[in-house]
Every structure is written in C-alpha cells, then in structure tokens.
Amino acid sequence: MTILHQYQVEGLEIQNKDKKWFKVKPSHQYSFIVMVGDSMCAFLNGRLASTYHRVLVTAKKTRYSTALFSTPKTGVILDSPEELIDEEHPRVFKPFEFNDYRDFYNTEAGFAAQSTLHAFCAL
C-alpha cells in the first residue's frame, strides 16, 4: 500500500489499463492519496486493484520522501478471507507465500509480465 501526501508538490502519476499516465492532483492541500499494492489486491480477492504509479521530479520545489516497506512474516500464506469469495466474486488468486511472490517478481518472467501478480498466482 502506498500512502502519499504531496503537500503542494505535484508530480504523482498513475497508469490506467490502457497504459496511459495521468497526473493526480490532490483535492485539498492536506489530503492523502492511498493506493493498494499487489499483496492487498490479492488479499482483497481483486476487489481493489493495485496501481502502477510514478513521481516526476522537477527542480521547482523541494520534495521529501519517506518509504516504509512492510511484508508478511516468512511462512504466512496470503489468502482472501472467505467473506470476500462468493458466486458474484469467485476466487481470483491462489494463496501464496509473500517471499515466493517477491522472488518471482525479481525474475525475467516477473519483469516481463503485464501484471506480476496475475502471472504469479491468478486462477
């Protein structure tokens, strides 16, 4: 999951399904933008999609960034809760261990995939 506060320093772009990039402008100077990552997408059975995003840096304003990465403990299986699976929303992803996904992500096949998550564990 990405949580971003631009604080009047624009530059965030997200990619749509057609691979076109769009600028994201915050609705308010104190607003946060929250984007789901692949792990959360899998856990939520695809109900929220992970978003490819980038930040274009300009020299006009100083930008500060802090990153915090959190992953499941080794051996924990990422699986959608049964409450998110029904006839209208069948299971989208096979359960998986995050380290296996990360290892696949860093392979040639993972880099080449249009969606690494789907290439790794889609049903």
Automatic annotation (TrEMBL):
Domain Fe2OG dioxygenase stretches: 1-72
Which SUPFAM superfamilies does the UniProt record give? Answer: Clavaminate synthase-like
- Note one Pfam family from the annotation: 2OG-FeII_Oxy
Q: Which InterPro entries match?
A: IPNS-like_FE2OG_OXY, IPNS-like_sf, Iron_ascorbate_oxido_reductase, Oxoglu/Fe-dep_dioxygenase_dom
PANTHER family annotated for this entry? 2-OXOGLUTARATE (2OG) AND FE(II)-DEPENDENT OXYGENASE SUPERFAMILY PROTEIN-RELATED (PTHR47990)
Name this polypeptide is given = Fe2OG dioxygenase domain-containing protein
Instruction: Report the source organism.
Output: Brassica cretica (Mustard)
